[in-house]
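hey so u asked for the seq, here:
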Amino acid sequence: MTATALADKVGLTVAPCHRRLRELESSGVIRGYRADIDPAALGLGFEAIVFVTLRTVDRPTVSDFEERVAALPNIVEAQRLFGSPDYLLRVIATDLPGYQRFYDDQLAALPGVERLQSTLVMKNLKPNVGPPV
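ran it, structure tokens below
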């Protein structure tokens, strides 16, 4: 949305709207801007949610696991959870065979993994909406 459209939507003129945006950016409320890319348009129309349980959750294992997860581009979202399982990963791939290769070659090889459980995404109802502001 342009600053002019945003200003109109919130009932401000453009100058105060720009000023408020700069304040939100400098205070860290707005962390950045990004393009909303449709993975299917890039041939990545397959999505799975993967629950990961680690053998141990000591600091070196967790650190090594998280470092490796951060380096894998097919993992587009990752959360560490309280309780069991330990992690939730959102993975995109070209198709089911592509996901199977990623699962076998990358996910199963992550350090400290005891168990992986995949759930395939049928439909994404609310992607990338952000916090309720």
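The chain has two domains: 1-33, 39-120. The first strand starts at residue 46 and ends at 54.
lmk if thats what u needed
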